[in-house]
């Protein structure tokens, strides 16, 4: 009986734990969300499918080297048997005259089996080389897609952290106003203040309530975007672990620099070079071997005529375009222009990537200093507010001074959150620019 009770309790606790995970959601950190995006994000999955597609395309292209066997069947009824004009002298007639002779019978049943084997095709090796280069391209595109999705996940993550931080500030401010209003109601009963003084605080409280609604609306939008990026079910609530990085930095490893954009451009230049080779190879002939067996059955029921005729042959086929109207010549000219474009893009891309890294690094330094100063400002604003509140309680200053001090604290809080999110954005932008978002 005790064993049964223990098992029952364990089962109920497990079900309760699962239910809590579904209803309340799991608490995630940034690394968990990035790993989830790697497996669940549709864009990353499509990039992975592109790699698989390229592999299958190469297999299909290699299959063209194997011999091809084709079978055809043909059933024909000649409603009017075709004729041929021949000299009458062929049949002993008068010279200079002609007769129409009909060849064949009404019914023909033909079956053919043909084998074809490519011996040399100028475009085959070119196609395989293109697919090998394309494999590099789709691999790099996967890396770029992963970096972009990681950037979006990190951006959404830190936006939610900033929203939560701002919400905590607002909730604390609302509690503080409620405490003040409670004390002021007691002062109102004693006739020490007028009702308008309390109304001024109510205005501030309504402003904070409106800010809460706006934050919640923004939070829902960011959470929905994060669900799509990471594959979190819609019914699951998103809970984030507290971001301790507000005092730290994301820039743990800045020595590893990898820019797949440049590698992608290099692969595109290789593709351009291979296309030029392919255009030149197209001037060469193609050679193939073929063999065929044919059996034709001829039938004329009214004469009770039936006979089968066999035929078979082997051969070599040479296909050589001697003049194509300058098509390949113009393709080579287009290829040369594309080569020049890629070279210009490479120069520009290097400059842009370097400048992005420099700008991000500069912004990190700027926002690090800004965050430090805004935190100092917040500490001073809170200190001034406490002093102002004490003076207000002593009746030496008005409610306006207290509200002004409170607004200064709220602005300082917003500045801290703003600097925080800008710093995080600058850091992930920097990591993205060096290909090191992990």
Write the layout of secondary structure elements.
Blueprint: H1 2-24, E1 27-28, H2 30-40, H3 42-62, E2 68-77, E3 83-87, E4 98-102, E5 107-120, H4 124-189, H5 195-230, E6 239-240, H6 260-281, E7 286-300, E8 305-319, H7 327-393, H8 399-433
Parallel strand pairs: 1-6
Antiparallel strand pairs: 2-5, 3-4, 5-7, 7-8
Structural description of this entry:
The chain is an alpha+beta fold and 438 residues long. It has one domain: Outer membrane efflux proteins (OEP) (Up-down Bundle). 64% of the residues lie in helices and 16% in strands. It has helices spanning 2-24, 30-40, 42-62, 124-189, 195-230, 260-281, 327-393, 399-433; strands at 27-28, 68-77, 83-87, 98-102, 107-120, 239-240, 286-300, 305-319. It has a four-stranded antiparallel sheet, with no helix packed on it. Strands 1-6 form a two-stranded parallel ribbon. The model is unreliable at 1-24 (pLDDT under 50).
* Rg: 41 Å
Question: Ends: how far apart?
Answer: 52 Å
Envelope shape: elongated
| CATH architecture verdict | Up-down Bundle
How many individual domains? 1
Find the count of extended strands (DSSP E, 2+ residues).
8
Annotation field: number of helices: 8
- The stretches of 5 or more residues where confidence is low (pLDDT under 50) are 1-24
């Amino acid at each position: 009986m005790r064993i049964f009770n223990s098992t029952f309790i364990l089962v109920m606790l497990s079900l309760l734990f699962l239910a809590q995970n579904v209803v309340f959601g799991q608490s995630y950190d940034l690394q968990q969300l990035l790993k989830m995006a790697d497996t669940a994000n549709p864009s990353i999955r499509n990039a992975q499918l592109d790699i698989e597609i390229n592999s299958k395309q190469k297999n299909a292209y290699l299959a063209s080297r194997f011999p091809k066997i084709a079978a055809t069947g043909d059933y024909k009824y000649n409603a009017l048997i075709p004729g041929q004009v021949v000299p009458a002298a062929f049949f002993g007639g008068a010279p200079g005259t002609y007769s129409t002779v009909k060849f064949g019978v009404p019914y023909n049943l033909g079956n053919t089996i043909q084998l074809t084997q490519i011996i040399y095709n100028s475009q085959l090796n070119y196609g395989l080389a293109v697919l090998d280069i394309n494999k590099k391209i789709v691999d790099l595109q996967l890396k770029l897609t992963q970096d972009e999705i990681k950037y979006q996940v990190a951006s959404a993550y830190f936006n939610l952290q900033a929203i939560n931080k701002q919400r905590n500030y607002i909730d604390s401010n609302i509690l503080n106003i409620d405490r003040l209003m409670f004390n002021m109601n007691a002062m109102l009963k004693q006739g020490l203040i007028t009702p308008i003084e309390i109304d001024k605080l109510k205005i501030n409280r309504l402003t904070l309530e409106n800010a809460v609604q706006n934050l919640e609306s923004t939070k829902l939008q960011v959470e929905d975007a994060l669900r799509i990026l990471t594959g979190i079910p819609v019914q699951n609530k998103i809970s984030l672990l507290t971001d301790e990085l507000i005092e730290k930095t994301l820039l743990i490893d800045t020595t590893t620099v990898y820019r797949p954009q440049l590698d992608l451009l290099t692969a595109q230049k290789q593709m351009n070079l291979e296309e030029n080779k392919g255009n030149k190879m197209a001037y060469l002939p193609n050679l193939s071997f073929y063999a065929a067996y044919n059996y034709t059955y001829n039938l004329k029921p009214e004469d009770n005529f039936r006979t089968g005729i066999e035929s078979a042959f082997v051969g070599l086929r040479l296909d050589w375009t001697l003049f194509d109207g300058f098509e390949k010549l113009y393709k080579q000219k287009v290829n040369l222009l594309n080569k020049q474009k890629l070279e210009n893009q490479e120069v520009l891309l290097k400059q842009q990537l370097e400048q992005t890294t420099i700008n991000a690094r500069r912004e990190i330094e700027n926002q690090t200093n800004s965050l430090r100063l805004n935190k100092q400002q917040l500490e001073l604003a809170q200190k001034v507010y406490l002093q102002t509140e004490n003076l207000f309680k002593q009746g030496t200053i008005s409610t306006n001074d207290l509200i002004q001090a409170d607004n200064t604290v709220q602005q300082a809080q917003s500045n801290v959150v703003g600097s925080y999110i800008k710093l995080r954005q600058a850091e992930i932008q920097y990591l993205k620019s060096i290909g090191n978002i992990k």
